[in-house]
Write a structure and sequence with these properties.
It is built from 24 helices and 17 strands. With 586 residues, the chain is an alpha+beta fold.
Length: 586
């Protein structure tokens, strides 16, 4: 991704130059140095429009990547934050962060002492890595920079086998793990003192209380609408144009309805698959845009070899290659709207639906079983066959993770898992890939809106009651258009019947998996490319057996309907990343 790379005790200048050069991914990228000293370097790589700003005070250099939305005087705000950082005023810094609707990474470098700190927003919206290699510590938005530095210093990074197992289990590692030993994510809402490695948590969500339970569904929906429109207005102010990535679902529909209520140059764009697999979704998106009188365009996108190779190089395995279709889409949009803000519906599936377990959980074992049934890709037993990790260690890591959450109820810990792990560790990474071409954001992760939404009780969220009222408050017109996943509007009897059936299937995960596999109309299930890629990996990779079982890979590759394209893409991505990128993209 574009963005900041900060290095404490940097290597020789020629080595550092080589590392930073390798993350200038296209001809549009350039390197900019903000602080260049013997003991500390702060730089950024990216294209001209990417938001990185530097602010100098008498004592320090402050670099801001991203945006503080709705902030009139950004320099005053970041200078205030920097003073809290340098003076160790944690409570004041925590309050400062809690007041921000923001997506950012902030580095504060004390020029006199050489001390360096990194601060991020409450959701960790800009995935950031930290690692120490020899005497050098690096904090960077670019995982490739860490791996390149390690190779250059002859200190190759070994895979984190438990994180690899978690990636196959869920599609993403848990907590702060990455696929590589010694390389960790900066946790959301935290302050890192780079020299000591000390991390201070400044903002932690708790989902076991609901302050809005005393209000009606309608009253809560109207409050959410107002917060949401404010978030849209704040985000619209940072670009010349706003492009909403419009699908056939509810979340992007809410986004375009919210933006349609503010003064901005608004467009809608929909990714149409080259194989025609999402025709129904494209048609629904067109209907929504037409109903709101918003100019709409479709873009034919595919998982091209170029975009898969680029995604592998840029994310180093933290983004599954099946998602490369999103890069093709984003690149095409950027060619037509180079100074636009690209807006998605990410976070809508976290803020407004009921995220509590669909069945009763009375023990932590019950909770872990519910999470596995609802979220797993490969089963723990399959993962243990594929890579060198035991079922006990893998399941135990999920136990350990949910035990670390601050909530007192198991139901709230279930919510926390979906927000913190699936939301931060998977969906944030997915949205971040778009930032190779355009700044990407979503109003659902505006902190004032999100906290208001999570304060609404689960009872109001069930059956999409709260969502229905929220969407009606934004635009009654779009409520009556089909929700493509169910083929019916969300205010219809047909939708309620289908939703009841879907919820019943949720409590029968094996049957649900089989039914959804049979009913998929989006083309994913018939993509043979990952099958061929896995077979080629087994045939050509000299390093494969260091990390994976060839027999298990062949089993996944040729299992037919027993595994989906998503399974195969996730496995192939891990293989391609960990075998030093020697395997060409599918």
């Amino acid at each position: 991704m574009p963005g900041i790379t900060a290095v404490e005790s940097p290597p020789a200048p020629d080595v550092l130059d080589e590392v930073l050069e390798t993350i200038c991914f296209t001809d549009d990228y350039a390197r900019e140095d903000f602080l260049l000293a013997d003991e500390l370097v702060v730089a950024a790589t990216g294209y001209e429009q990417y938001p990185v700003d530097v602010f100098e005070t008498d004592d320090c250099t402050i670099v801001l990547e991203g945006h503080l939305y709705g902030t009139d005087d950004v320099e005053a705000a970041v200078t205030e934050a920097a003073s809290y950082v340098r003076e160790g005023q944690t409570e004041q810094l925590s309050s400062w962060l809690a007041e921000r609707d923001a997506e950012f990474l902030l580095t504060v470098a004390d020029r006199e002492t050489g001390s360096l700190w990194a601060l991020n927003d409450a959701f960790g919206r800009l995935p950031t890595y930290r690692a120490t290699i020899g005497d050098t510590t690096v904090v960077t938005r670019e995982l490739k920079a860490v791996r390149k530095l390690a190779r250059t210093l002859d200190d190759g990074l070994e895979p984190n086998r438990l994180a690899l197992g978690q990636q196959l289990l869920f599609g993403y590692p848990l907590g702060t793990r990455s696929l590589y030993e010694g390389v960790e994510h900066l946790p959301p809402g935290s302050l890192l003192e780079v020299e000591t490695g000390e991390i201070t948590s400044l903002h932690e969500f708790r989902f076991d209380s609901h302050a809005n339970a005393d209000r009606s569904v309608r009253a809560n929906a109207l409050r959410l609408r107002d917060r949401f429109v404010e978030a849209c207005e704040n985000r619209a102010s940072v670009g010349d144009e706003t492009i909403v990535s419009l699908s056939g679902g509810l979340d992007s529909r809410a986004v375009i309805a919210g933006y349609n209520r503010v003064d901005c140059q608004l467009y809608a764009a929909t990714s149409a698959r080259a194989d025609g697999g999402n025709t129904a979704e494209v048609n629904v998106a067109r209907q929504v845009a037409d109903a709101l009188n918003v100019p709409w365009s479709s873009y034919i996108a595919d998982r091209t070899e170029h975009h898969q190779s680029f995604l592998l190089e840029a994310t180093q395995g933290m983004n599954n290659l099946g998602m490369s279709i999103g890069l093709d889409f984003a690149e095409q949009v950027a060619e037509r709207h180079e100074n636009a803000v690209f807006v998605t519906g990410d976070g809508g599936d976290k803020a407004i639906p009921d995220l509590t377990p669909s069945r009763e959980v009375t023990t932590t074992d019950d909770l872990v079983e519910a999470l596995l049934d609802g979220q797993q890709l490969f089963t723990p037993e399959e993962v243990a066959d594929i890579v060198d990790v035991t079922v006990e260690d893998l399941v135990g890591s999920v136990h350990e993770r949910v035990a670390s959450y601050p909530e007192t109820t198991l139901e709230a810990k279930h919510v926390h898992f979906l927000v913190r792990e699936r939301g931060v560790n998977w969906l944030n990474h997915g949205e971040d890939r778009t930032r190779h071409y355009l700044w990407s954001t979503t109003p659902f992760y505006a902190l004032p809106f999100f906290e208001e939404a999570m304060a609404c009780p689960p009872e109001q969220k069930r059956g999409n009651d709260l969502y229905r009222e929220f969407l009606s408050g934004l635009s009654p017109t779009v409520v009556g258009i089909d929700y493509v996943d169910f083929g019916a509007p969300i205010d219809s009897l047909e939708f309620r019947i289908k939703q009841y059936g879907y919820n019943w299937l949720t409590n029968h995960p094996k049957l649900k998996s089989r039914v959804t596999s049979l009913l998929k109309q989006n083309g994913n299930g018939t993509d043979e490319r990952p099958v061929h890629a896995l077979a080629e990996a087994v045939r050509t990779s000299s390093e494969l057996d260091q990390y994976f079982s060839e027999e298990a890979i062949n089993r996944v590759a040729w299992s037919g309907g027993a595994h989906t394209s998503q399974h195969r893409y996730v496995l192939y991505t891990a293989i391609a990343a960990l075998t030093n990128d020697e395997i060409e993209a599918a």
